[in-house]
Amino acid sequence: MSCTFGRPGDNRRFVHDSARDLAAARLDGPLAPEDETWLADHLNFCDACAAVAAEYDAQHDLFADLRAWTPEPPRDLWARTSSAIDAERGHRSGAARLGLRGRAHRTSRRLSLAPVVAVVAIIAVVSVGLLKVPLGPGGIAAPTPIAVSAAADLQVIGRDSQGNVQILSRRVDSVCPVGVSVCGAQPTFDITPVTGVASATTLQGAISPSGDRMVVVARDQGGEGVYVVPVRAVPAAVASKSASPVASATAAPASSHPVAVASTESPGASASSAPADSPAAASSPSDASSSPASSPTASATDTAPSSTPTPTVVPTTAPSPMPTVEVTPAPDATIKIASGVTVVGTPLYAPDGVHLAFAAMPSDGGTGPDIYVWSSGDKTAQAITSDHGSWLAAWTSNGILASRVAGGTPATYLLDPSTGHATAVGDPGIWLPALSPDGSSAAWWAGTVKLASDGVTWVPDSGKLVAGSWPAGSGPTPQVLAKGSLAAWQVRWSDDGTAVAVWTVAAGKGNSGRLSLFRVDPATTNIDLANLMLDPVPANPDFSLRNGRLAWTTPTQGVPQVVEVLAWSGKTIGRLEVPADGSGTVVP
Amino acid sequence: MVFEPAQIERRVLPSVRPMSATWDHDEAYRFVEELFAKHHNEIYAYLLRMLRDTELAADLTQDAFVKAYKAYDALQKPENARAWLYQIAHRVALDDLRRRRIVRFVPLVGEARTTTPSAEHLVMEARLSGDLQRALQKIPERQRQALLLAELHDMTGLELAAALGVSHVAARALLTRARESLRQALAIEKAADVQHEADIDAARERRQ
Question: What is the pTM (predicted TM-score) of this model?
Answer without folding.
Answer: 0.50
